[in-house]
Amino acid sequence: MTDDTSAFDLIDDALDERDLTALARIAGDLDPGPLTDVLERLAPAPRAVVYRVLPKLVALEVFERLDPALQAEILDALRDEEVTAVFTELDPDDRVGLLDELPASVASRLLRGLPRAERDLTAIVLGYPAGSIGRRMSPEFVSVAASSTAQDALERVRRVGADLDSAHTVPVVDGSRRLLGTVPLQCLLSAAPTVAVADLLQEVDTAEASDDAEDAARRCVGSKALALPIVDAEERLVGLLTVDDALRLLEDADSEDQARIGGVEPLRRPYLSTPITGLVRSRITWLFVLAIGATLTVQVLEVFEATLEQLVVLSLFIPLLIGIGGNTGNQAATTVTRAIALGDVGTREIGTVVWRELRVGLSLGLVLGTIGGLVTTLIYDGDIGLVIGLTLAAVCTMAATVGGAMPLLAKALRVDPAVFSNPFISTFVDATGLVVYFLIARAVLGI
Question: Which parts of the chain span the membrane according to its record (predicted)?
Answer without folding.
Answer: 284-304, 311-329, 360-380, 387-409, 424-445
